[in-house]
């Protein structure tokens, strides 16, 4: 929004005027700089949709084909832009369909404001048509939620919703608004929320703890950093880079932290966790100081807590006090925003290089390359690998694409092998592991960052969980690139069945439709690749396309993703085959 | 970390908002922690509610759930305390047939010795109230059971801490911001 428009908006909003609740909702959204929202109309939200029609030049509404698609699209929007994503739905099934996206946003700390319509307040609790207790249902998966039953409450509640969603550790907020509140009138005046007395979004950084952290790091012989999404959310990428470069610390990332530091950075030692890289997992149990930055020691990262980094002093930089000592005991906890605390840490650090220590990572990488990476990226067998598809996308997009991955084997391959030159380039469902996430999330990501190449990497299973969003892509003309890696299996579950359930492939084999024909039915151009020699040209054509493009790559049916830490095992027990 | 399971009194100071009880109980539910008793009322601070919840857990669990409570937007502050750190009471009410009061002299002695209070007396029944520790109320219940109790109810624990809670300071700091 340019300054002149912003001033005009401010002028309009600062005046008190008598309007309906529905109009107030739209004006609140405008005041919060919302220019795009994802949703699906229905009976209990119709007054708001009616107002949206009037304000269609100010706010673009994207009609997804399912409310789950709306929530994921809003997530994709938020993750690539750092802004609040907005999704809207009607009461009952509309609201419950948002829940998966909301739960996903909660566990992955994504700022969302979801607005749901509700039956008129006099019908609340009567099992009225399309009534569900969405406040009760969404309570465990929202950062905050609230039901509005009077038009006059709307400005204050929505202002609070946006403030809570985006401040501190971000998260989803749900506001449920009864139909009579939408129809009712109020004297509208909007003031942005700047604080809630019971809520401390960012705890103050204690300088003493920063000093203690610096002392431990300066004395360390084998320090190692594991950073998470907190770095991206706190916009601390430059500060993290400065810290690792000054102190010469090898730095690994969790799946949610991917892309904060370019993949090619010499101190970037790869991904930790169940399908992370060999060296950072193995050496987690050999480092003397483990510095966790904006990450929460998820069980997929730590494996067995009984054996996780027991030899190391642990420093935890964290914005959410509830995460400190939740899973791993922190010898030093530095509370606060990662940008602020790393800024304070930097001048206290000694310059260092830790060359011998870094060599240990290189040696283990060489083993991983020989046993896993070589076959993934430069296969000699006939069948196509997922890894070589990613490698070709890296080449054609020059490492500048934002990769939106779904959930499963392809997700792990996408995170392991994507070259990320820019931050906020890895958009995936980390904590909840939501199949069906990528296609709608890619829509939101591309709409938020039209200048970026957005490539969705999806398995044949997850693709069919929200395949209807091809309709949204077609209608909205979103030039998102869709790559389905088809192995005709629910690949990750099949891998587990192979390794841990005696190859009993119970209900994991998929007989798939003709995906290219389906894409073409939605007027999306597409191609199916089955041979290695067709791959490079097909990806080149896809990247060159100015419109949305669908590419199906038929890959080896029973490939596995390695390395792998079996569920509940120690990070040291990481397997290469 | 002390892994011994103990009785902890959790005090949660909150804004007075609908739905908060749901959020708080969900935190116990997710962790399979059984609530022994729960009392909620207005606190010493205008507009601020206080939950007093008794649970049997380890201290490590107590520390972690306190973090989860404090994460809730409308929770102002949460604390946990051991029994030694608090002064606590419960209250029990007993409804008993009136003729027993006059025909069983022993009942009058029980009332006197237990320091129970007669709340009301009418033709059909009388009501006793007894405040104190759980075992005192239970002991009275056992004594009266012999004669027959028409209705019995016991409240959740109410408790104050021996040490000062700096909640008021915290709130005034916010108001002065």
SSE series of chain B: EHEEHEEHHEEHEEH
- Oligomerization state: heterodimer
Continuous helix count of chain B: 6
Helix proportion of residues of chain B, in percent?
A: 25-40%
- Main β-sheet description of chain A: 6 strands, parallel
Rg of chain B, nearest Å: 20 Å
The class by helix and strand makeup of chain B works out as alpha+beta
Strand percent estimate of chain B: 35-45%
Q: What is the global morphology of chain A?
A: globular
Overall geometric form of chain B: elongated
Label the structural class of chain A: alpha/beta
Output the strand order for the largest sheet of chain A.
3-2-4-5-7-6
Total strands of chain A: the figure is 20
Q: Which blocks of ≥5 consecutive residues of chain B have pLDDT under 50? A: none
Mean pLDDT of chain A: 97
Beta strand % of chain A = 15-25%
- Count of alpha/pi helices of chain A: 23
Query: How far apart are the first and last residues' alpha carbons of chain B, in Å?
Result: 37 Å
Question: In this structure, how is the largest beta sheet of chain B organized?
Answer: 5 strands, antiparallel
Helix-residue proportion of chain A: 25-40%
Cα(first) to Cα(last) distance of chain A is 53 Å
Give descriptors for this structure:
heterodimer; A: 577 residues; alpha/beta; six-stranded parallel sheet; 20 strands; globular; B: 177 residues; alpha+beta; five-stranded antiparallel sheet; four-stranded antiparallel sheet; 6 helices; 34% helix
